[in-house]
Write a structure and sequence with these properties.
Elements: E1 7-16, E2 19-24, E3 38-44, E4 47-55, E5 62-66, H1 68-74, E6 81-88, H2 99-107, H3 109-117, H4 120-131, H5 136-158
Helix pairs in contact: 2-5, 3-5, 4-5
């Protein structure tokens, strides 16, 4: 897959329900953006994070929703102007694989095959859940728990 350089531009931080939202004008979008839901790496104030770039209904503009955690880490506030940089996310799962989970999957190749067959949203959700643990012990426990959840989910989908 071709790599694309990131593109930086200025945008407004708005509020949407309980989250902050970054709306990106269609004219500012990098060439790799297709206009459909797309995974990107965004950098705001030195904090880089994977996220979804979503289309604004009835417009060619796109937006990114910032969770409370991303707001805190990127140090943004509502109703301000920021500089954001977008880069195409070429990662395999649209989210970094925690080191502990990569090791777990290397020892459980059948679980890895099952994981790869899950919908992308499930994959990202499981990876985020493991990655959000603060301690090594908790991440390892979550790897084992998620491994069994993957097998359960795979069997449930297979038996439909």
């Amino acid at each position: 897959m071709a790599t694309h350089k990131s593109k930086a531009f200025v945008t407004e931080v708005g509020e949407q329900y309980f989250n902050l939202q970054l709306t990106i004008n269609a004219k500012q979008l990098p060439k790799f953006v297709t206009g459909k839901l797309q995974r990107v790496l965004a950098t705001v104030n030195g904090f880089t994070f994977p996220c979804a770039l979503r289309p604004v209904k009835g417009s060619k503009d796109m937006y990114i929703t910032l969770s409370k955690d991303k707001v805190k880490k990127s140090k943004v506030e509502a109703n301000t102007t920021i500089v954001i940089s977008l880069q195409e996310d070429n990662s395999e799962f649209g989210f970094p694989v925690p080191e502990e989970f990569a090791e777990y999957l290397s020892q459980e190749p059948e679980t890895m095959d099952m994981f790869k067959q899950l919908p992308a949203g499930y994959q990202r959700g499981f990876l985020h859940y493991i990655d959000s643990a603060k301690t090594l012990d908790t991440r390892i426990k979550r790897c084992i728990h998620i491994g069994s959840r993957i097998r359960e989910e795979f069997l449930k989908r297979k038996n439909k």
